[in-house]
Amino acid sequence: MKSREEHMRNFLSGFDIGQKRGIEIGAYDRPVFPRSAYPQIEYADVFTTDEIRTSAAQNPKRNADAVVTVDHVLRNKKLSELIEPGSVDFVFCSHVLE
Question: What is the reported pTM?
Fold first, then answer.
């Protein structure tokens, strides 16, 4: 069975996102686009960084130290209210299954 990292590398190899500016929604403590590899990435969530860290600290399956810094809090706003239209190359909803 492939590891999560192998699945992600395989998935991401199909996209040419390199230095493009993007937003990952809901990265929590397991971003698909870590800033170390994707410096132009920004993170959005309905919770603040501190709220996510508090939640992660109470869950043994999560790592509070790995929680990403949320750049855009979507609690009562749409993403289009927080960023300039056309200012990003992609938006990725992390951990979504439809």
Answer: 0.85
